[in-house]
């Protein structure tokens, strides 16, 4: 196969790996940027999105867990994928509003460590709740029929169709959020609030409402990420934690509060992973041990974050925090 | 609750007396006096304390340490069902217990069997901690489990240290009965080396004998020996390996790995992944259309992972521990009793291993007439049996590896799957064509360690 095909394939893989992280990271980043709230429960929103999506899309057979013991051997609506793509974000948006009001708000003026502790605790509670209800087992989230199987692309050949959809859906959602923040009054208030909340309030604008909506939007994006990302793998109670760490890395790389940063950070992270795993790099010998690059893919992601932190501590598109 | 003399049938008395001789009679005498504690009442008086022997109280405790979470949790779930069924049958009769000449269906050596469960989380450290708790706190005389060789190896190391028997369930790494073997562990499951021996002839006959192949493997003990064995036996059969790449255990997204395999130009792709990982990687490979360009081989299959992969397994070759379609009396009986217990559910290979290993231990205790571990070990070593549904077998003394037949299977298309049937059995490779001497293969690296009574 030609080099061009290899490179294109690595690029597409990088994009799709990064796409899910971008969706999760945008919410994380704007909540951190506007509200200065460290939300370790953001992965739990992904988890909720994945299970909710699964239950709306399919009818699931449960093989263990409390629900089964209560007599629900099968659960789920079987409505298909598109309704899930609309209902889940709305549902998780509402959860986000509740979370802002009852969890985040009382902790705004407390130290970061308090915020981390409470949200991390919340994430674990959510995870264990799902484990108790649905069992620890992984449930197969089948792709929608119209998006399963490979698609034949020019030059690179077969590529999984669903992964292309993931890239497209992510692109559309990112564009919507970006337009919202850049070109609406709502976005203007939020951005102004990020810069100088006191001045905005002095102008007579109450920031509480835009903030709670922003929190909801961030949550909804994590929920959508769950719906879109879960068919790539299987659904189990641990997937929320699995996605949180890379999402934080994306925020670190891209810079807090920046949508552009989240996108660039996500793509970079996906690319590093996909290049180390998939690019035709020659393996090297260090002290008699053969180093295979794929095994270092996870290390590569952290190395990228470390390099960015060294060169630009505020992240590629972040603004230096003053005062 | 202490058993009184009225619960002893004549058959029990004769059996125990026959098996344990005078010691057995003395033990029964103790029992008729209403004993039951501190090693009295079970014919065990004459051995020194070792591990969790002698048993305190009137219940013998087993420990079942399986992955209830993590990538191999589906396997663990089915193992647990089988373990619970085995305990039920040991105490009340039924299933294979009725056909095992050594077992009575009235407990083991006059002890009622009880059990504790543990979750290994498919992680070696967690497995060891959980097993340690079972030994120290719950006083188990035997523990069993597996699914992930890393957890099995960690547990069997502990077994040797603590002088408590470990009946390995699902562990397929060569190291389990190779370089990491121990005296206190026995393995019914075959290993990666034997999978290579069984699979290479069938696959090379089907696809030709001069193909190139590419391997992805789970990056821990099992995956590493699996990759090495596939390389060895397929290269001996004339194939050539282009490359092999490690993937982390518990990986959910194999797309980058798979597309590298796809662009390698190899004719065949070996997916040395198991459990959920196997289900994921195979599903994603088919999703990416790799099956249209290369032959995919899934060296080690089982039912839960086939279920997770769905129609993606169509036409793909592999080996399995056991399958309910295997046509013999023990297999049919196990399928029947398992189905009766669990709403018609068809048992998987891991379930059969779990059930068999529990009964094998109990039978060895009955033969030994004592729970004293060194004596139980001696009863298992070089023991020949044909009562667990895989034909004539021997639990070899030199490395504690069962010498047995290996089923080679091919995945069924999605439309033909159902009722717990996911495979077509292509061949049951007889043990004469697989395996190795005590001085070669993985056995050459095995040093079992001490019995504990030397």
SSE order and pairing:
The complex is a heterodimer of chains A (323) and B (454).
Chain A lengths: L2 H33 L6 H16 L2 E2 L4 H4 L4 E2 L5 H24 L7 H23 L4 E2 L9 E4 L3 E4 H23 L1 H11 L1 H6 L5 H22 L4 E2 L3 H16 L4 H20 L5 E3 L2 E3 L5 H15 L12
Antiparallel strand pairs in A: 1-2, 3-6, 4-5, 7-8
Helix pairs in contact in A: 1-6, 1-9, 1-10, 1-11, 2-4, 2-5, 2-9, 2-10, 4-9, 6-7, 6-9, 10-11, 10-12, 11-12
Chain B lengths: L9 H23 L26 E8 L6 H20 L19 E8 L4 H13 L5 E4 L3 H14 L2 E4 L16 E3 L4 H16 L4 E7 L2 H16 L3 E8 L7 H8 L5 E5 L2 H13 L2 H4 L1 E6 L2 H7 L7 E3 L9 H13 L7 H20 L4 H8 L2 E3 L7 E3 L6 E2 L2 E6 L11 E7 L25
Helix pairs in contact in B: 2-12, 3-4, 5-6, 8-10, 12-13
Characterise this structure:
The complex is a heterodimer of chains A (323) and B (454). Chain A contains 12 helices and 8 strands. Chain A has 323 residues and is mostly helical. Chain A has a two-stranded antiparallel sheet. A two-stranded antiparallel sheet of chain A has the order 3-6. Chain B is of the alpha/beta class. Chain B has a 7-stranded mixed sheet, with helices on both faces. Chain B has a 5-stranded parallel sheet with strand order 2-1-3-4-5, with helices on both faces. In chain B, strands 11-12-13 form a 3-stranded antiparallel sheet, with no helix packed on it. In chain B, helix 2 links the parallel strand 1 and strand 2. Chain B is globular and about 65 Å long. The N terminus of chain B is likely disordered. Chains A and B meet through helix 1, strand 5, helix 6 and helix 11 of A and helix 2, strand 7, helix 7, helix 8 and helix 9 of B.
Give a nutshell description of this structure:
The complex is a heterodimer of chains A (323) and B (454). Chain A is mainly alpha-helical and 323 residues long.
- Share of residues in helices of chain A: 55-70%
The main pleated sheet of chain A reads as: 2 strands, antiparallel
**Largest interface, Cβ cutoff 8 Å:** A-B, 48 and 36 residues
Quick one: biggest sheet of chain B?
A: 7 strands, mixed
The termini of chain B sit apart by 35 Å
Major beta sheet, strand line-up of chain A? 1-2
């Amino acid at each position: 196969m030609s080099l061009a095909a290899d490179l294109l394939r690595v690029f597409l893989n990088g994009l799709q790996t990064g796409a899910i992280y971008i969706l999760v990271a945008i919410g994380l980043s704007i909540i951190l940027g506007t509200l200065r709230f460290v939300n370790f429960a953001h992965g739990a929103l992904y988890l909720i999105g994945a299970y909710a999506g699964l239950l709306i899309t399919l009818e699931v057979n449960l093989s263990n867990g409390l629900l089964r013991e209560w007599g629900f051997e099968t659960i789920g609506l079987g409505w298909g994928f598109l309704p899930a793509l609309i209902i889940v974000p709305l549902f998780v948006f509402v959860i986000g509003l509740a979370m802002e009001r009852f969890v985040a708000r009382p902790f705004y003026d407390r130290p970061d460590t308090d915020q981390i502790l409470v949200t991390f605790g919340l994430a674990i509670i959510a995870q264990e709740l799902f484990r108790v209800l649905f069992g620890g087992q992984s449930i197969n989230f089948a792709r929608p029929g119209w998006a399963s199987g490979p698609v034949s692309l020019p030059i690179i050949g077969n590529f999984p169709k669903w992964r292309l959809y993931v890239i497209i859906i992510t692109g559309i959602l990112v564009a919507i959020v970006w337009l919202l923040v850049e070109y609406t009054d709502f976005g203007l208030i939020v951005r102004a609030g990020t810069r100088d909340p006191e001045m905005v309030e002095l102008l007579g604008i109450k920031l509480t409402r835009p903030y709670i909506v922003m929190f909801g939007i961030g949550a909804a994006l994590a929920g959508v990420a769950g719906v879109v990302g879960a068919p790539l793998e299987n659904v189990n109670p641990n997937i929320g934690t699995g996605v949180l760490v890379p999402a934080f890395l994306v925020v670190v790389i891209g810079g807090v509060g920046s949508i552009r940063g989240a996108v660039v950070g996500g793509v970079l992270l996906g690319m590093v992973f996909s290049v180390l795993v998939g690019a035709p790099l020659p393996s090297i010998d260090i002290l008699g041990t053969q180093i295979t690059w794929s095994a270092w893919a996870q290390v590569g992601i952290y190395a990228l974050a470390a390099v960015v932190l060294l060169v630009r501590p505020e992240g590629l598109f972040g603004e230096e925090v003053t005062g | 609750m202490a058993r009184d003399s009225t619960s002893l049938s004549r058959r029990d008395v004769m059996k125990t007396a026959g098996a344990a001789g005078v010691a057995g009679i003395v033990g029964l005498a103790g029992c008729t006096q209403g004993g039951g504690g501190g090693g009295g009442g079970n014919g065990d008086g004459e051995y020194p304390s070792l591990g969790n022997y002698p048993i305190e109280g009137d219940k013998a405790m087993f420990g079942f340490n399986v992955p209830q979470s993590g990538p191999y949790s589906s396997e663990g779930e089915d193992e647990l069902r089988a373990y619970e069924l085995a305990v039920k049958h040991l105490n009340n009769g039924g299933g294979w217990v009725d056909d095992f000449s050594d077992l009575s269906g009235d407990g083991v050596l006059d002890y009622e069997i009880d059990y504790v469960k543990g979750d290994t989380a498919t992680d070696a450290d967690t497995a060891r901690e959980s097993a340690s708790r079972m030994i120290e706190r719950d006083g188990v005389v035997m523990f069993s489990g597996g699914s992930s060789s890393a957890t099995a190896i960690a547990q069997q190391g502990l077994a040797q240290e603590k002088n408590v028997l470990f009946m390995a369930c699902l562990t397929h790494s060569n190291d389990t009965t190779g370089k990491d073997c121990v005296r206190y562990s026995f393995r019914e499951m075959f290993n990666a080396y034997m999978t290579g021996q069984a699979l290479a002839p069938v696959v090379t006959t089907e696809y030709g004998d001069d193909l190139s192949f590419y391997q992805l493997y789970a990056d821990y003990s099992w995956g590493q020996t699996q990759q090495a064995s596939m390389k060895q036996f397929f290269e001996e059969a004339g194939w050539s390996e282009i490359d092999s790449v490690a993937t982390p255990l518990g990986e959910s997204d194999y797309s980058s790995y798979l597309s590298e395999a796809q662009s390698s130009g190899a004719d065949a792709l070996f997916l040395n992944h198991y459990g959920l990982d196997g289900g994921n990687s195979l599903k994603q490979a088919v999703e990416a259309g790799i099956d249209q360009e290369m032959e995919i081989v899934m060296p080690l299959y089982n039912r839960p992972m086939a279920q997770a992969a769905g129609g993606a397994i169509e036409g793909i070759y592999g080996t399995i521990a056991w399958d309910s379609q295997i046509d013999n009396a023990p297999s049919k009986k196990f399928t029947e009793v398992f189905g009766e217990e669990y709403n018609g559910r068809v048992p998987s290979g891991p379930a059969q291993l779990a059930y068999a290993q529990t009964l094998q231990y109990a039978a060895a205790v009955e033969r030994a007439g004592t729970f004293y571990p060194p004596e139980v070990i001696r009863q298992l070593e070089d023991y020949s049996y044909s009562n667990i549904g895989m034909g004539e077998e021997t639990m070899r003394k030199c490395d504690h590896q069962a010498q047995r037949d290996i089923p080679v299977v091919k995945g069924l298309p999605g439309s033909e799957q159902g009722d717990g049937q996911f495979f077509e059995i292509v061949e049951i490779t007889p043990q004469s064509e697989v395996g190795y001497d005590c001085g070669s293969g993985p056995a050459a690296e095995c040093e079992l360690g001490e019995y504990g009574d030397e």
